[in-house]
Inverse folding.
C-alpha cells in the first residue's frame, strides 16, 4: 500500500476511534493498539511531510508556542445569562414567560463550570476557535483547542460556514491527575476545575494544553450558513449528526417540571464527569426567542439557576496518609459523615504538612467543611472552643506507609516523597516511565497492559518486565499469543538500549533524558555512575548539587539496589554505546525547528550528540546554529534577530557527511 493511501486509512481509523472514545464514551480499540497505529502514522508523516493534513490525529498537539494570543472579533456575540438563585426566582421567570407565550417549551441543561468558546468551520474544516472574552472580542486559542479530542477537525455534510458555541472544561479525573502532578512538582494546586481549564486553554504552548486533557460540550449554533432550525432541540440534534459532543438536556412544558429537573440535576452532580455550578433554562422555539429579545448583555429568553455552596461543621475522626503515583505523601482527614452538595462527605484533603500546620488541624477537632469547586471537600477552619483535651499536633511520617522506604522533602520543602524505587503505590507510574519512548522504548506496553500485569501480580518492579513469560502475557487476551510474542520481542530488544536510556528510565528526580546522556557520556557505564559520590557528580556539566544528591541518594536505597541487581541478572545493557570519536561539533549547540523532510528530529539529535554537540529546544545567545525545515516560525525569526547562522537541511547534511 502506498504511503498516501496508508496515511489516509490510518487517519480515518484513528479519527473514528477518537469519536467513539471521547464523544460517545464507547471505546472499541485497546489503548495499545491505538498507540501502535498512531506511532505508525507519525513515522509515515515524518518520512512524507508533504502528506500531513491539518486534520491528522498527529496534529492535535498544535504548533509551536506563541508569544501572545491574537484578538478575535466574534461574528455573532457570545452573550451571558441572567442568574437566578432560588426556586421562587426561577418560578417567576417561567410564569412570566408562560403568561406571554402559553405554549412555551423550556430546555433545561446542566451549566458546565468551564470556559465558553466559539468554534468556526469553513467547508467542514475547523479553522479557528476563540474564548468568549467580553462577548464581542475574545482571544484566538485555535492551537490549544486542537488538542481537545472531542472537537472534530473535519465535519461531513456541514454548511459552507458554521460557528458553534461550547464550554471547555476539565473532567474530574483530569483535574485530580493535574493536581497530583502539581503536588509531585511542589507547585501550587489549582483551586477548582474551572480555573484549571481556563489556565490550560490560555497556555501559550499548545503542548502544555494537550497534557491537561481538556474536554468540551457544545450547546448552541451561533451561525449555520444556509441551514435553518425551528427550535433549539432541532439545532442540537443537527450538531449530534455532525458528531459534536452535545450538552445533554430535557424539553419541558410546566414550571413544576422545570424546577423538578433543575433540582434533579443538582442531586446527580456527583455522577457527572465534570463540574457544574447550576442549570440553564432556555425557551426552545427560536422564533419565540427572537420576539422576546435581549438586553445589552443578556437574552430575555434564558436564565442560569446557580446552586449555592454549602458549608457545614463536622469532626475530624482520623488523619490517614496516601502515597500517590508520583510518591508524594498526601494527608487526608477522615471526618464524621456530613451531607454536602447532594452527597455524603466522609473525608477531606489536607494537601501537605504546611496546610495542616497553618490551620492547626488535629484529630478530634470540630471543623467547618465545604466542597472546593463543588468537587473536593476542604477544611476551612477549626473551632478551637470545641477542641478535646489532649489533642496532639499532627506530623507526617518519616517513612513511607506503603513500602517503608525513607521519606524525603522536595526541593522547596512543601511535600514529603517516598524514595522507594519499587514502592507499590508508584509502580504503575514508574513502569509507564520506564517503558516510554525516551526511556527503554518498549512498544506495546501501554498503560492498560501495564495495569493488567500489575493486577495479576506478574510485575512488582520495573525490572520484573524482563522476567515476564509468554504464558503470563498472553493470559491478558483470549487469543493473545501473537500480541504477547510481539511485546516480549520488544522487551528483549530493549535490553540492548544505550545506558543513557536506562539511566533516564530509572526515574531519578531531576534526571531527564538530556542529563542521562551527559551522565552516560561522562561515566561510560552504570557501575561507574553508581560508585560516584555526590561531590564527584557536581563536577559533571549540567548537574547541580540537588540533582547530584538525588542521584547519590537513589543508588544508596535498598530498593534501588535490588532493582539494579535484577536488571543486571536479566542482561540489560549497562554500558554506553555513544562513543564520541569525531568531535567536530564539540562546544556547539543546535536548535531544530520546522517540518524536517530529510530526517527526523531524533535522527538529527543523535548525529549532533554523536559528534560531541548539543541539541537544545529554544534559541538563545548560546545557540551555534539553527536548522530550519518548512514553516519554521518564531525560532527562525529569533535566530535572525540574534544573528545566529541558519542552516537548511542540505547544509546540515553536508556538515555531517
Amino acid at each position: 500500500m502506498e504511503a498516501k493511501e496508508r496515511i489516509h486509512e490510518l487517519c480515518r481509523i484513528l479519527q473514528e476511534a477518537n469519536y467513539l472514545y471521547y464523544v460517545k464514551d464507547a471505546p472499541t480499540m485497546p489503548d495499545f493498539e491505538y498507540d501502535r497505529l498512531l506511532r505508525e502514522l507519525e513515522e509515515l508523516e515524518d518520512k512524507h511531510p508533504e502528506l500531513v493534513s491539518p486534520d491528522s490525529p498527529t496534529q492535535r498537539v498544535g504548533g509551536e508556542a506563541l508569544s501572545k494570543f491574537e484578538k478575535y472579533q466574534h461574528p455573532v456575540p457570545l452573550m451571558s445569562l441572567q442568574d437566578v438563585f432560588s426556586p421562587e426566582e426561577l418560578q417567576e421567570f417561567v410564569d412570566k414567560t408562560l403568561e406571554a407565550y402559553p405554549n412555551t417549551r423550556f430546555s433545561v441543561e446542566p451549566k458546565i463550570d468551564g470556559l465558553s468558546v466559539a468554534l468556526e468551520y469553513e467547508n467542514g474544516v475547523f479553522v479557528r476557535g476563540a474564548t468568549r472574552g467580553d462577548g464581542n472580542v475574545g482571544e484566538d486559542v485555535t492551537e490549544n483547542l486542537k488538542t481537545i479530542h472531542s472537537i472534530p477537525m473535519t465535519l461531513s455534510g456541514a454548511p459552507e460556514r458554521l460557528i458553534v458555541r461550547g464550554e471547555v472544561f476539565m473532567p474530574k479525573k483530569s483535574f485530580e491527575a493535574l493536581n497530583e502532578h502539581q503536588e509531585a512538582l511542589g507547585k501550587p494546586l489549582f483551586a477548582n476545575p474551572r480555573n484549571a481549564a481556563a489556565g490550560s486553554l490560555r497556555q501559550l504552548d499548545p503542548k502544555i494544553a494537550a497534557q491537561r486533557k481538556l474536554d468540551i460540550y457544545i450547546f448552541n449554533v451561533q451561525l449555520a450558513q444556509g441551514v435553518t432550525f425551528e427550535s433549539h432541540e432541532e439545532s442540537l440534534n443537527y450538531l449530534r449528526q455532525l458528531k459534536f459532543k452535545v450538552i445533554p438536556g430535557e424539553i419541558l412544558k410546566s414550571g413544576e417540571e422545570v424546577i423538578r429537573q433543575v433540582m434533579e440535576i443538582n442531586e446527580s452532580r456527583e455522577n457527572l464527569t465534570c463540574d457544574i455550578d447550576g442549570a440553564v433554562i432556555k425557551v426552545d422555539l427560536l422564533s419565540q426567542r427572537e420576539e422576546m429579545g435581549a438586553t445589552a448583555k443578556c437574552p430575555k429568553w434564558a436564565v442560569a439557576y446557580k446552586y449555592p455552596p454549602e458549608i457545614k461543621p463536622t469532626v475530624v475522626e482520623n488523619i490517614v496518609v496516601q502515597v500517590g503515583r508520583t510518591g508524594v505523601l498526601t494527608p487526608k482527614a477522615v471526618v464524621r459523615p456530613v451531607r454536602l452538595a447532594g452527597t455524603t462527605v466522609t473525608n477531606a484533603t489536607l494537601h501537605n504538612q504546611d496546610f495542616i500546620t497553618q490551620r492547626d488541624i488535629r484529630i478530634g477537632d470540630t471543623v467547618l467543611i465545604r466542597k472546593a469547586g463543588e468537587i473536593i471537600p476542604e477544611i476551612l477552619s477549626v473551632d478551637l472552643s470545641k477542641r478535646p483535651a489532649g489533642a496532639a499536633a499532627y506530623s507526617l511520617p518519616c517513612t513511607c506507609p506503603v513500602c517503608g522506604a525513607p521519606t524525603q522533602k522536595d526541593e522547596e520543602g512543601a511535600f514529603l516523597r517516598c524514595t522507594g524505587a519499587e514502592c507499590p503505590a508508584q509502580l504503575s507510574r514508574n513502569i509507564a516511565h520506564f517503558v516510554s519512548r525516551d526511556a527503554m522504548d518498549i512498544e506495546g506496553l501501554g498503560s492498560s497492559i501495564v495495569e493488567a500485569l500489575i493486577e495479576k501480580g506478574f510485575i512488582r518492579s520495573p525490572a520484573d518486565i524482563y522476567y515476564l513469560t509468554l504464558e503470563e502475557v498472553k493470559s491478558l487476551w483470549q487469543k493473545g499469543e501473537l500480541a504477547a510474542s510481539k511485546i516480549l520481542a520488544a522487551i528483549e530488544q530493549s535490553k540492548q538500549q544505550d545506558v543513557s536510556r536506562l539511566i533516564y528510565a530509572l526515574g531519578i528526580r531531576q534526571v531527564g533524558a538530556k542529563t542521562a546522556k551527559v551522565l552516560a557520556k561522562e561515566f561510560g557505564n552504570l557501575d561507574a555512575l553508581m560508585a560516584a559520590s555526590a561531590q564527584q557528580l557536581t563536577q559533571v556539566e549540567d548537574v547541580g548539587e540537588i540533582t547530584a544528591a538525588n542521584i547519590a541518594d537513589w543508588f544508596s536505597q535498598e530498593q534501588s539496589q535490588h532493582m539494579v541487581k535484577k536488571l543486571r541478572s536479566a542482561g540489560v545493557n549497562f554500558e554506553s554505546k555513544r562513543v564520541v570519536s569525531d568531535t567536530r561539533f564539540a562546544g556547539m549547540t543546535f536548535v531544530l525547528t520546522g517540518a524536517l523532510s530529510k530526517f527526523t528530529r531524533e535522527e538529527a539529535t543523535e548525529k549532533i550528540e554523536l559528534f560531541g554537540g548539543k541539541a537544545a529546544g529554544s534559541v538563545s545567545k548560546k545557540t551555534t546554529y539553527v536548522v530550519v525545515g518548512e514553516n519554521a516560525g518564531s525560532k527562525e525569526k529569533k535566530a535572525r534577530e540574534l544573528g545566529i547562522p541558519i542552516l537548511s537541511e542540505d547544509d546540515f547534511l553536508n556538515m555531517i557527511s
Notes: The chain has a mean pLDDT of 88. Residues 116 and 167 are 4 Å apart (CA to CA). The first strand starts at residue 71 and ends at 73.
